Amino acid sequence: MPAYAQTPQLPPPLSTNLPHDVYLEVEVNGQRTSMIAQFRELNGHLAAKGKDLDSIGIALDRLGIADTAEVQLDSIAGLRYTYDAARQTVSLEIPDNLRKPYTFNTRAQARTPPATSSRGLLINYDAYAQSSTDAQLAIWSEERYFDPTGVFSNTGIMYLYRNDRRYTRYDTSWSISDPVALDTKQFGDTISSSLAWSRSVRIGGFQWRSNFALRPDLVTFPVPAFAGSAVVPSSVDLYINSVRQYSGNVPSGPFIVNNVPGITGGGQATVITRDALGRTVATSLPLYVDTRLLATGLSSYSFEAGFLRRSYGLDSFDYDPRPAVSGSARYGVNDLLTVEAHTEATSGLYNAGGGALVRLGMAGVVNGSLSASAGRLAGTQASLGYELVEPHLSIDAQTIRAFGNYGDLAARDGTPVPTATDRVTLALPLFASQTFSVSYIGFKFPQAQPSQIGSASYTVNFGNLASLNLSAYKDFKQHDSRGVFLSVSFGLGRNTSVNANVGRQNGQSNYNVNATRPPDYDGGWGWGVQTGDAGAAPYRQAQVQYLGKGGEVTVVGQDINGQGTASLDVTGTVVLMDGSVQPSRRIYDGFALVSTDGVAGIPVLRENRVIGVTDSGGHFLVPDLNSYQHNQVGIDGMRLPADARIDTTSMDLVPQAQSGVLARFGVTRYSAASVILQGPDGKLLPPGAAVHHEESGKDTIVGYDGLTFVEGLQPDNHLVIESGSLHCSVEFAFERPGDASLPIIGPLTCRPTAGKAR
Predict the structure, then answer these.
(1) Could you read off the pLDDT of 31-89 as tens digits, one per residue?
(2) pTM of the shown model
(3) Strand, helix or coil at 296?
(4) Which end of the chain has fewer CB within 10 Å, C or N?
(5) What CATH number corresponds to the domain at position 256?
(6) 660-664 β-sheet, strand order
(7) Which GO CC annotations does the UniProt entry carry (predicted)?
(8) Could you list the residue range(s) of the whole structural domain that residue 254 is in?
(9) Is position 690 within any domain?
(10) 670-684, pLDDT tens digit by residue?
């Protein structure tokens, strides 16, 4: 056949010689993922970009694959796949070592909104009066101003005795906190930082410190993570020392349980997975948690500069004229090692040292430090300690030795460093409700008699009903210093308890029997009675307490060795905020002032529990919120007046530390009424008739019985109605009722108008 008569040869199909994109449904290890991923196909072989493999769940970091790189699936060792072109699916078989583990946090909390603060002033007070020849009266107070930029606080005590009238200032400071940087800056009186082997001093000046309390959800210590694998989607239960701490669900494949909660010290964690058929797999691992360690990469610090405070509590403005500085730092090198350092300096003294805490696997944590001082007080100090906490054993031992004339800021100011400090405690839980412990404490100051005190204690609990404690001690350096004590406590229910103590100390017998019933949190009465004998001084006491929304009052009567006295203690807070003065029980941290824009008698809820009602000015003070945490506060909208409107009835409040938040529930009053309309013939207008209120521009319709609801009423109102061929209008006057009700007006007769109303 001639060449020109031969049948021309067709090119091969595109899919056999050119790569092209395909979009396939992905299955992983036999499980459908409902995921569509992009691949490149050539002759039945697939390739994909790193970002697509990452979305499927392949661990790119283990394979060294970049997000933008295109990788042949056949080149990934251990991965197998089946490509079904007809069904447009790809089934991947991925071993666990190539998959990204599914991670979940057992301590996960909802993200806390940024903390806020309103502007206001509060005065905490504690007034104590006692009957005596001097007519004693002392008033402790704190004046605290707060706004979004920080908190100013001043504390002190006023003595109003018959022959002694004076005011002694305690602390005055301005503090600013930054939740993002997790630090607090304080100007004024403060207490310097310290470590386990250093001492704090009061200082007036400036302090800059890390503050983890600004993030309550932050776990600052190392916590274990547990890995597992589920063949199919399963439920996961986490048990710590046989107590379930977490329950959740995981997809098929590897998973990691982060931030295991529940214990301090040693214990056992058990992870149990269950599939849809009820098959279980349990994995147990030992764990040890010590909250003194810092998590890997986490650091804390504190720096102070100023002048040492002297005669605290006696003199308001006695400061050492020599400037002083102090600083501490800690850093978590890894989960097993935390290092720390401390330094101090003032005129004639320089002190610096370092230390470390090392976790010995499951065998506990050992700590040690070495520091030195130079100048007028030159010497060294060394410390060594060990702690082990187990479910059936607890050991705590610490020793500190000072050599030469070792000194620090406190020693430079007149309080010498102990030359020896020892502490050893051993606790043995015998059974579920019994504990036996022994301890030894020894210390020695220069030119002072040393103390070496040993003690033993046995405690048994009888459920929640009663407990018994037997203890004894002896000072080995003082022949006659010893004692033995027996105490029994009974819980009688309704917050009432009875306690009895009997003992012998330093050759004298003593006993005490008391019964107490403190006031409930919601307020009310409390009481307490006791009688006893402390050696040669018998005594009796009775007290009555009342806790209200505005504070707490305690009245005490005493008879000591035949001499009777009486005392009165009144504590509380006065808050000036939002143009109102609010008495309250004692406020320690954050609080909220609820405002309903003048509407009185509205119930206020805390965590869905009614805690009070707004006063005549529409205010209610919630005195005990947790700063930098979620606090759910709301009002009962069902108790609002009928003509009231509100956007929300609940708020998530996050106050700054020692500050108040104004929770304004914007209540607006509106003018509205139900109007009965009838046509020119006197018959009620039919349902569905269109109604237009000219003054407000709002539209509505007529319901049954000729009734329509009209909002935005003015003193004079005009309604235009359309109903089929009827076009008519109504005009009427309106005056808001004094009882805040929504009145019914009419019936009103609709007058015909020419043409359409609008």
Answers:
(1) 888 889 999 998 889 999 999 998 888 888 888 888 888 889 988 988 999 999 888 99
(2) 0.79
(3) coil
(4) N
(5) 2.60.40.3110
(6) 619-625, 590-595, 660-664
(7) cell outer membrane
(8) 226-289
(9) yes
(10) 788 999 999 998 899
